[in-house]
Design brief:
The protein is mostly helical. It is built from twelve helices and no strands.
């Protein structure tokens, strides 16, 4: 099978997964306790008015009729309005989602910048002090809760050193420098934890490759260690690492809500949590679908990159 055929197959599977996820999300949201009509009209609204509103919202229709109507609205970008404040859901999501993506991209970039030098150095200098330091950092980063790390970073950089803002957000168009300053601490929190995870995988993959016969053969031919690492070992260790990075990026999009709460960062995660607490069902299901779609899309990109880097999986 060619790479193009492999890509088409992966895209088709991803679309099926997204369709199944939309059905699950729509079903789960319907199981959340509470009545949207009562939320809109208030607890003491008359039952006749509430019933009329349910009919107007289509809540009295059969389940699959409601689902297909919702899917049609999704495709046509008619996402409706929040039942709490009346704001257009499309506006809410399109405003919040780029902010969460900025945190995720900055966080994953910081994690990669930490992990690759540290993981490669630890593998090349196995059982050295640098290797033990990398292992300690990896274990420490995996073990600590992300909200605790965020609070510690706020105390150090915002309270004691007073060099970065502890919370909030400034739009990128208004002030790019202030935007980066506000996003740096939550991104650093994400980056340290991801860096610890990536360091462990990079070290493990590098050690596995360094123990193979082709490395001994290259050494016997007199190739320098830097050339062996750069041209052979790192290239072969890269595909599994790319997979881990992609999977972690997808999980990070969904789990970023905690970081956004710690830093009072108005992203999609904060919007989702507030909507859940206020029973704003239309916003909840759209936010969940956006997060799931992002996770599926990221994993699709990872699969395609993996297929390009490792041709063996195409067959």
């Amino acid at each position: 099978m060619s790479w193009t055929g492999y890509a088409i197959k992966r895209v088709f599977v991803s679309l099926l997964l997204l369709l199944a996820a939309s059905l699950v999300i729509f079903s789960i949201v319907r199981l959340i306790p509470g009545d949207p009509a009562q939320i809109i009209l208030g607890r003491f609204a008359e039952e006749g008015a509430a019933q009329a509103l349910r009919e107007d919202l289509g809540l009295t229709e059969p389940f699959f009729t409601q689902y297909f109507t919702w899917m049609q609205e999704l495709v046509t970008l008619q996402w409706g309005e929040s039942i709490i404040n009346g704001q257009p859901i499309r506006e809410l999501v399109f405003t919040r989602f780029p902010r969460s993506m900025q945190l995720a991209i900055m966080g994953i970039s910081i994690g990669i910048l930490i992990a690759f030098p540290l993981g490669i150095y630890a593998a090349v200098n196995r059982n050295s002090m640098g290797d033990y330091t990398a292992l300690f950092f990896s274990q420490f980063g995996v073990s600590i809760p992300n909200f605790w790390l965020g609070i510690m970073l706020i105390l150090v950089f915002a309270r004691y050193l007073n060099v970065l803002p502890p919370a909030g957000h400034v739009p990128l168009k208004e002030d790019p420098i202030a935007n980066l300053r506000h996003a740096f601490l939550p991104a650093l929190t994400i980056g340290i934890i991801n860096g610890a995870i990536f360091t462990r995988y990079i070290r493990s993959e590098m050690l596995e490759e360094l123990g193979k016969d082709y490395v001994r053969t290259a050494n016997a031919y007199g190739h320098s260690q830097k050339r062996i690492i750069r041209k052979y070992v790192l290239k072969n260790a890269l595909p599994p690492t790319v997979t881990i990075i992609g999977i972690q990026f997808g999980y990070m999009i969904g789990g970023i809500v905690i970081i956004e709460q710690v830093f009072t960062y108005p992203g999609l995660g904060e919007l989702l949590l507030n909507s859940l607490l206020s029973r704003d069902y239309p916003v909840v299901q759209l936010s969940l679908l956006i997060l799931v779609a992002t996770f599926i899309f990221v994993n699709l990109i990872v699969d395609l990159i993996y297929g390009y880097l490792d041709p063996k999986i195409k067959y």
